[in-house]
Amino acid sequence: MLLKNGKLAVDSFIRIEKRCEHKKPTLCVDDLGANALLQNSSHFHKEAEFLLRRDIRDVQSEWGGWLGQYQTRLQSELRNLDRDKWQSRGRGGLST
Description:
The chain has 96 residues and is an alpha+beta fold. The chain folds into two domains: 1-34, no CATH class; 40-89. 45% of the residues lie in helices and 17% in strands. The protein has helices at 34-38, 41-53, 65-89, and strands at residues 14-21, 24-31. The radius of gyration is 18 Å and the shape is globular.
């Protein structure tokens, strides 16, 4: 529908969420902007926290182009958060 209406174009990155409004399911589509998303530190921080809570510590950067850049940025944030987590516990998780 967005593409048909000319609202979705190259360099778009969308998030689709199903919500219930007035007991009726509705799809909400947010265009986050592909390049803007790559610069959004808050997005990568939240995504990395989400993955770490599920004990996922690695994102394979197997793609090129924009998706490869996304994966690389997410992997970098995962490493930073994981390192900070261990440092806050005291040298590799060992408290003295």
